[in-house]
Each structure stands twice: as structure tokens, then as C-alpha cells.
Amino acid sequence: MASKYEVIGIHGGLLFIHAVLNSLPIGWLAHLGMLSAVWNIVGVFFLMIIIPVVSPRKATSEFVFQHFNTENTHNIHSSPYVFFIGLLMSQYTISGYDASAHMSEETKASDKNGPYGIVSAVSISLVVGWGYLLGITYAVTDLNHVLDPSNDAAGYAVAQVFYDAFKNRYGSGTGGIACLGVVAVAIFFCGMSSITSNSRMAYAFSRDGAMPFSNFWHSVNGWEVPINAVWLSAGIAFIMALTSLGSQVAFQAMVSIATIGLYIAYALPSLFRVTLARKTFKSGPFHLGPYGVIIGWVAVLWVATICVLFSLPIEYPVTAANLNYTPVAVGGVFLLVILGWLFSARLWFRGPVSNTEVKPFTL
């Protein structure tokens, strides 16, 4: 297994490649985005078919749909508790669809295509993702072995499922390792898209004067790429990962906010839409009509619910090493948001950014 320094080195190398790819002209990036979409869809269909077909032993439908892993090493023996904690991975998977909004300035007819992108991303993830999970779960016949840290994949469940499917059939797990390559490439493309999305957010905030040194971050190069924001995003991602060298607890505390933080950000516009702007909001060409307010409230209440669920302990007894730091991390981020809002308000009262400083870029 790689040391933490080797992992950081690989992480830094991948971020460098992602930043280089995002520094390319927008047209090239669009082609890479299409390749990413095709790879993810085709790759998922390939894996959801090949793994259960290759696996010589199949789990029963009763195990797939009714079994709860209450006999675990985390001392969590309640089926409802296991179910609610298990929602975390589903919520994390159906995220990132806001990239369509961040890329709206580079999208033709973004007032329609942006929302269509969000809806299609969620719909495809829901259907295809569920099928993918079914394919993998039917290949699990020994749950304890799959989760055992001493197995061939060091406790990484999905990797072990792939490996066992081919090893049990052909006597070698090489095919399973190749299947992991499909996942690795998909993750690589996701990393590239994350840098794209983050750089556009940094560009938009700095364009409006809401970041320190905004004039520097919102500048674009000759290819109309926010080059400084791209490398800022990659640099911050690397710096954040460096905390894992000193303390895994600190690193886990920082990344524990990932899912809840994203969904709070998603829910805030809906909350403002159904409260402060309920009577003054002007709908665009894509809207939910009379159901918009109802769906907005459902979304807000659901996010409030998962914020509570995902703040619960994930292991008992609770210690400093396994404490769920999500509530602490969320509180810290809210403090930063408030400070950022105060900073933005100070700039706002100074006056807006001059038109000569704003250089929008389009596809």
C-alpha cells in the first residue's frame, strides 16, 4: 500500500494534469467533457453487466433488498440507523449537477440548456446508478470478506468485489483490476470537471469583487479561459490535502462537510425562492409552474433532514478518532460565509466593479 507521501504526490500530479487540461481553449474542454460523459455512461453500463455475469456465485434478492449489515465492527446494530447512515453515499453520488449552472456563461441558450443539464444529470444518475449498484450487490456473497481490511483490496469493498468476480471464475483477478481502470478513468474525468466548476465559481465571485485580489482571479487569457482561477482551484485542492500528512482526524473533519455542504448550498436558493422571493421571483423560460413552491419546500425540508442524519455518530463508542466532525465543520464554514458576506458587503457599498474590468467569455 502506498505511503501517505506517495498518495499526496499522486494527488498533486493529478491536480497538475487537471489544471493543464482546464487551461486549454474552451472548445477543447468541451470535447473532453463529451468524452467524459460518454465514458461514464458506457463504463457504468459495462460494469453493471460484466460483474454479475462473470461472478460464478450470486447473492439472493432477499440479501440485496432486505439485508442490513448490523453485525459490523462499528457497534451499530440498528437496521433503521444503518439505513439512514447509508443514505450518505446516495446523496454524495447525486451531486455535482450544479456544474451546468457554473458553466452557464459558456453555454448557448443557457436559460434553457442549463436547467435541462441539471435535470438530465440527476435523472441519469438515479437510473443508471441504481442499476450499477444492483449489479455489484448481486456479486457480493461474503460481506465480511469484502469488508475485511486484510483482503486483497485492503478493505476497499468495490475493488474486492471486482477482483473476486474474476478470480472465482478464471482463477485470476486481473480482469477485476482492469475493471477498476474503468472506474479510475471516470474518477479522473470527475476531478477534471471539478476543477472546471470551481474555477468558474472563483471567476464569477471575483468578477463581482467578492474575493480578495479579485482583479487577478477574474482575468482571462487569450483563449478566454479564467486561467488564474483554474490554477487557484487546483492549488487550494492540493493545500487542503496536505493536512492529511499531519493529522488524519483534521483531514477527515475538513472533508466531512462535503455532502452536507454541497446540499446546503443547493438548498439556499430554493429557500430564498419560497420565502423572501415568493411573490417577487420572476421565472425564466424553464420553470416548474404552480408546483415550484411545493417542490422547493420539499427540497429544503429534505436537506434539513439529511443535515441531521449525517451529523450522527458513525461508530460507537465515540472517540476523538471516529467522531463525526460534520457539525463542527458546517459551523466553521458558516462562520467563513458570514465573514465573506461582510467582506462582499463592504465592497458593495464602495460601488460595483467597473465595466472595463469585466470580460465575460463565451463558447
Describe this structure in words.
The chain is mainly alpha-helical and about 375 residues long. The protein has helices spanning about 5-20, 25-55, 60-65, 80-95, 100, 110-135, 145, 155-170, 175-205, 215, 225-240, 245, 250-255, 260-275, 290-310, 325-350. The protein is globular.
Which structural traits does this protein have?
363 residues; L-alanine transmembrane transporter activity; AA/rel_permease1; mainly alpha; transmembrane helix; globular; L-lysine transmembrane transporter activity; gamma-aminobutyric acid transmembrane transporter activity
Overall geometric form: globular
Q: What's the total helix number?
A: 16
User: Which series of helices and strands comes N to C?
Assistant: HHHHHHHHHHHHHHHH
| Overall average residue pLDDT | 83
